[in-house]
Automatic annotation (TrEMBL), chains A, B, C:
Listed EC numbers: 3.2.1.23
One example GO MF annotation: beta-galactosidase activity
Residues covered by the Beta-galactosidase trimerisation domain: 388-597
Catalyzed reaction equations: Hydrolysis of terminal non-reducing beta-D-galactose residues in beta-D-galactosides
One GO location term (cellular component): beta-galactosidase complex
Enzyme class: hydrolase
Claim: Thylakoid is one of the keywords in the record: no
Binding positions for substrate per the UniProt entry: N141
GO biological process: carbohydrate metabolic process
UniProt protein name: Beta-galactosidase
Highest rank taxon of the organism: Bacteria
Organism: Alkalicoccus daliensis
Amino acid sequence: MYFGVDYYPEQWPRERWETDLQLMKEAGLNLVRVGGFSWSILEPEEGRYDFSWLDEVIKVISSYDLDIVLELPISAPPAWMLHQYPDILPVTSDGRKTGFGAQRHYTVNSRNYRDFCSKTASALAERYGSEESVVGWQLGNETVHLSYGKEDQVAFQSWLERKYETLEKLNEHWGTVFWNQTYSAWEQIHVPAEIPQEDNPSMQLDFNRFWAETHTNFNNKLMRLLREQTDSRQFITHNLVYSGTVQEHREIAEGLDVASFHTYPVLADVTMPRQPAAAARKHDLCRGTKQGKSYWVTEELSGAPSNNRTGYLPRPGHLKLWTYQAIARGAEAVVYFRWRAALRGTEQLCQGILDHDGMPRRKYNELKEMTASLQTFADEYIASDFPAEVGFYHNPENEWAWQIQPQSAQFSYEEEVLRFYEPAHALNIHTDMIQEKDNLSAYKVLIVPVYFLTKPALNEKLKSFAEKGGTIIFTYRTGVKNSDNAVHEKTLPGELASLCGIEIHEYEALPGDGTAQIKGTAGPMKNRSGTGSVWADYIEPAEAEVLAVYEGKWFEDKAAVTKNSFGKGTVYYIGCGLERGLLLPLYEEIFQNAGLETTRLRNKVELVQRETKHTKYLAVLNHNIDKKEEAELPDGKWKDTAGKEKDCKGRITLAPLQSIILKQHKS
Amino acid sequence: MYFGVDYYPEQWPRERWETDLQLMKEAGLNLVRVGGFSWSILEPEEGRYDFSWLDEVIKVISSYDLDIVLELPISAPPAWMLHQYPDILPVTSDGRKTGFGAQRHYTVNSRNYRDFCSKTASALAERYGSEESVVGWQLGNETVHLSYGKEDQVAFQSWLERKYETLEKLNEHWGTVFWNQTYSAWEQIHVPAEIPQEDNPSMQLDFNRFWAETHTNFNNKLMRLLREQTDSRQFITHNLVYSGTVQEHREIAEGLDVASFHTYPVLADVTMPRQPAAAARKHDLCRGTKQGKSYWVTEELSGAPSNNRTGYLPRPGHLKLWTYQAIARGAEAVVYFRWRAALRGTEQLCQGILDHDGMPRRKYNELKEMTASLQTFADEYIASDFPAEVGFYHNPENEWAWQIQPQSAQFSYEEEVLRFYEPAHALNIHTDMIQEKDNLSAYKVLIVPVYFLTKPALNEKLKSFAEKGGTIIFTYRTGVKNSDNAVHEKTLPGELASLCGIEIHEYEALPGDGTAQIKGTAGPMKNRSGTGSVWADYIEPAEAEVLAVYEGKWFEDKAAVTKNSFGKGTVYYIGCGLERGLLLPLYEEIFQNAGLETTRLRNKVELVQRETKHTKYLAVLNHNIDKKEEAELPDGKWKDTAGKEKDCKGRITLAPLQSIILKQHKS
Amino acid sequence: MYFGVDYYPEQWPRERWETDLQLMKEAGLNLVRVGGFSWSILEPEEGRYDFSWLDEVIKVISSYDLDIVLELPISAPPAWMLHQYPDILPVTSDGRKTGFGAQRHYTVNSRNYRDFCSKTASALAERYGSEESVVGWQLGNETVHLSYGKEDQVAFQSWLERKYETLEKLNEHWGTVFWNQTYSAWEQIHVPAEIPQEDNPSMQLDFNRFWAETHTNFNNKLMRLLREQTDSRQFITHNLVYSGTVQEHREIAEGLDVASFHTYPVLADVTMPRQPAAAARKHDLCRGTKQGKSYWVTEELSGAPSNNRTGYLPRPGHLKLWTYQAIARGAEAVVYFRWRAALRGTEQLCQGILDHDGMPRRKYNELKEMTASLQTFADEYIASDFPAEVGFYHNPENEWAWQIQPQSAQFSYEEEVLRFYEPAHALNIHTDMIQEKDNLSAYKVLIVPVYFLTKPALNEKLKSFAEKGGTIIFTYRTGVKNSDNAVHEKTLPGELASLCGIEIHEYEALPGDGTAQIKGTAGPMKNRSGTGSVWADYIEPAEAEVLAVYEGKWFEDKAAVTKNSFGKGTVYYIGCGLERGLLLPLYEEIFQNAGLETTRLRNKVELVQRETKHTKYLAVLNHNIDKKEEAELPDGKWKDTAGKEKDCKGRITLAPLQSIILKQHKS
């Protein structure tokens, strides 16, 4: 498998390159990602290309037998280009044209920008498309930003015209009759901007769709250009982002060979590593992007992150732990950000594997030791199966709808999805990220959290899934919106009401201290009580059984959690942001009833089971920074793949931040 | 009396109208407010009017025998208009032209906008001015926003020229000599905008006056247009706003038949209902706008409010309670916002009497039951007298002066005025909102809180009021400013010093933890102690008696509360934001000394006494959400107007959120 | 010595002037600062000067035998000028041209503005350059603001061209290769502005340098104009600002006769006076600006400060205390802001010695009493020596580098510098503010806090200082940056590593609760423990001795505080924001080892020793507001200069806010 680094030779004198490459080689690395910020070198003035520097870079790297991923340099167009073609500069939502500086100072809706990108991509493909050491291309880097200028508005109007064909249809789908916003000409349509009150949510969702499609189309155009001019041996990827972005990851990745993303368990303004389930979910998302195949980590944190503020310094063991988590959850390659801390420019305080002084030390040694211990079995390991019997729904459009209307001051999409993901992780249940297009028949349980913006196709699939015996977990605010991001006229939970066997007539963002008292009344919740937060759906059971109710004067007869039989299956509805103490035993019983085996893991311990035809693998990861912790191993004797620990069975104790991968021959 | 709803037929298919109107009729409603957001339907392109849709709306509504208030559609000018005449779009205080979207996307200073409004108003008046079922017109909707563009600047300059005639006078009144801001031409004058430091406060106050007058003039112009073309039978109103707005409510309402306003005891970002005195004060304000007559609630909250955040869900009983509070305090009609939650557009998550699914349920049934119980006596009740012996001063200009210079980080105009209003409410004392133009002779006590920006006419009236035996309560920061919003040269409290019998030489926004220790020394405050907050005037008594002093090293000899005899009257001065525990006994003694009867009501219980020649009415309202509470009834036997409770006397107990209106024949 | 006031005769009627001047005279004042905001009066329209008003002002003031400082009126250019030449208006960092209003509404990069200033300065110099009563000129007032407009950008580009000569050099020094920001033409260079991510730190530092130099050059130009046309008897100064400003105080003051500044121990948003060391440090800064000579306070707070919020009301005794602190620490004149509170305009709520009503009261009486008691000895006192054996490093460029990259969310330059200054103050150690140009040989100890942006010249001086036996205290983040504001390639602390005898391989902004546990292991820290905050350098001692270590799992073997012998000297390195409880004993031992005498002063008691050939002076200042406090006097009998207290020796007790200056004849 590939272990690589992000390397910026343009930042270092030619005489240093050999030292760096020698050190990389010795550390067991076999891949280098280069080129992302070198446009001014490759095209120093309009139309004049000069590849001598990149030729030399590639020559030297390959002389050390390292493979290369070439990143197109399009994240940061050169100063000369922006000065000559200021239409490329993006515009903020309050109408301000942003200046040159940092990166991503362009709008994809500028034809000039797109033309420059195409020409440069072609020139690079022509030159390096059959270069032996170039094994792949990266098209875009974290392309997540929007722009609100004149060019963007015109493109939005055209996109809308293609989508709706007539203004009558657009007015109807957007409900412009509300507050008299009926359009009588396409040019009247604005981009969402800072106005005295909120913009139309249907329009806002379409603006996000427009931007996601714009990014996808631009990516596809570059991809086709490269396909035509490069060896089929060379793969193509794109560095994706999975939080709070206007990106349709599956769409953008569809034509790519590899889905890849950056993972930063801490950031400059995140002062402690987030809980392991948060990173696990991101890995699941990237693994699911191409249905479990072809997934890389293109940027794995290697030192303290920093912009003008500096973040948490990863402790000894973190680099290995995060790498193990990545490959255990499906990554086929890990590329570290970055080889060495820059001496100059914006992100100069952000650390790398080497620090500013270029001396190999702790982080380098950790890396070296880790690659050595992985060498013998990594290829077999990453080819093993990741069996999952639980599907977890995530769709960017649903996230956008929540971002447009968060509804509760306490609501955070990331936190609420994590609320309903984490107990599965804590019960040692593997999850796949699913969407409406997926074949769901392999799963026993589907978790469909905060399913606010509904998809008719998914609604149908879920009904059929339950009918055939599957188990589904829904949560508050299910079934509220149709695909126009308008409210369904059906009684809540709308299209899902019969599936859940309930109706909801009253609901609210929880007032006062933001919590409701919940009393369990049946099943796994019997005799348990606790709190719910963020939101309360006051449920009227129809066919469903009540598992928990709200306590309090006015809505105390209302259900908080229900369970319904539908066909051969079972459907749960959780009406509020249920606290973990109640959610964990509920999930446990749901999984067990669905025939899944669960284990209550110790806090911040993560287990991942993989297998090949003949071998079982078990990754055991202690994410606790200051605490040793135990893990219960499945039956049988296990062997440490790194050969450091002796064979073990039963209960083992891990040091703080210890991570091991065990294996066992199937009998 | 009228019970109505805000209805938006444009949002629903024609076939639903009949269902809605039938349901309204059955709920006991007799009025519908329509038309506010239908400009694009009525004038689909410039100059082409098409009233067929509105004809149909009116025909169908009147076929159900419901009366109609027509709202002019001018809050939301159509997309085509703004696209063709972009000068209509408003400009923010940081110079950004805001885009189309939401509502109120216009500046009244645009001649184009005003002309379009006049033409449309005329066309509507011509068509519906003698329509039987149309009983009234609403001219403007919450017209509270400012604009800072070129058109506004030119209008401001002309307004200033009319006001001051010469630049010499303007320079003098504004004190432009400070920081060398002398103007030598009218065109040099800017609008207040975001500049490195604060703008001249005299200029800022004039800018607010200019805007208030601009709104009033525009309203009057439309009013005159309608008067000319409509039956005198049809009344004219305007939906006012009473918090934090640049509106001269009395001026704008002067030519109107009815003053009306919206009341939202909770909002999307107010998670629990505000204390009952807060809503009571707003009702007093609207009742006082036309001196106790012709006051409507045009928007009464009926469900959970929501923008992109959702607020508190009113509990069973709230709708009735708030309606009872409104009519008890003088409202002659109540119109609920809104009939049904919208499926599309910006405010789609805001609830109505019906929710998105259009099914009549709890809220509908509450409404229906309430109108039924009010039917028999409501007309008599709303015609009864609301006797008040205490006047409470409020003038928008004073509020603006405080907004321009809040002086203390703890200061909030709403909260501080409420501080000095609430104890009267808690002592079962009726208050009228008064201004300098009013005849004050009927009152025994005047409360004049945070009287910062003084009015010479009021100063004189207050002196004469006290001389004749009246009682006045002043608070901190009295008498600081003249009508230029400049500081008086006289020793504080300026023109009011002799009236109060004190001087103030030292004062401050309270530092450290923001409180001062207060020790009562005489009268009702003797042997009491507590805290003051927000501000401290360190008072030097001249003729006044000291009731309380500050404790602490440096200013401990200074008075905090004083009492002065002036003529036959008595004048109190409260030098800090006195805590409720001290304010309540002080008010009690003041009222009793002035010959008023007081009752200490239980927490959040409200009593309102009304009467006709032969009958006494008593509204008893328990605003406690989760707590039953007692109320002491005045002498005699009382009968429940709704006929539900049996006759009662003495002490009664109300369920949480229970509201009743009792009556008694005068003997 | 001079005691003066800031007086604005333009705000008051001519007939009041005599009253004011008579009161000033009686209060013992002998100087008036006038003219700063009178440009519209002096030049009512372009090119037409009218000095009759100022003639009269000067005539009347001198008739009372008060001396005059004339402030150039350039802080607030007139409305007519900005209307005719809008290029003068400044532009914010987000590209918004700010409107007229308040003050400082100009950019110095406007040639029009500079020309108007020169002409006006010349005209004033010509007229008053030999005026007897005019003893000095003030050129600029708090000139601290930046502008980001077109004129500024062009000036910045020219400045860069002068500095770097070629784009190759600029690209290299700025490291534009990072994120592909290479410039190929000077016109491509932007000003730092709000962009999606942070701007290049090298560019940002250069932008600050450009602005500081721009202000200095403009000041020098005016200075030369005045020098040519005025008597040499008249001095020239500039009202400087010492916190968070883009000002090179020493550069701007180099050609001036007097350095002066404003001091505000409380402000509208600072609700309690800052600790005495904070003001002491500001006084040290201004005294150091011209190497201990010619330092004035041009604005000393006299009443409660206020913008639209009002701040702390200085207690009786504060005015005297702050004056005593100023003259004890070296001020040769104190001018109070301001004579009387303005009735109109922006800062109308800010108090003066007289309040709005113009009546002399408490503050006036305090002032009068104080000047009387100072009269007899002030001239001798301010001429006495201020002996300091400790130098404290401060360089604006280092402050700017921190502002550009604060690195830790807890970091505040002011607070962190104060952390390392205050213990010296508390140990009764005098400090001088030093820079790399200074002769350091007179000092025994140098404190060089947060020395992030290094200066090669200083590095060399520090080495030689230590070699010869001096003691140096360094702190965390020493030696990180070179003068390009780029990171040094050498292992930390870079050029200072051998001097400190350490290396630093790991470091971080402290995560979690932001503190680290520190355990003392040797010397003064032995057996002490406590916390560090803000930042942690995990130190590897080379030659240095370890005085304290970090506790905690991962970096517990790392040093937190070290001590190194270098030549004949000693060098300390403090790796974190050490808490005061640990810093104080450490400083104590360091000073004592260096041969300095220390005294642990009581909390908020300040002592200042001065001396002439024959006399010792001792200022004893109790900054405690509510608490009397003791002070230990040095040996011998002391006499109160004000003649109020009897002779004293040993321990004396001061009332809250009491301040006295004692003297003793040298034997």
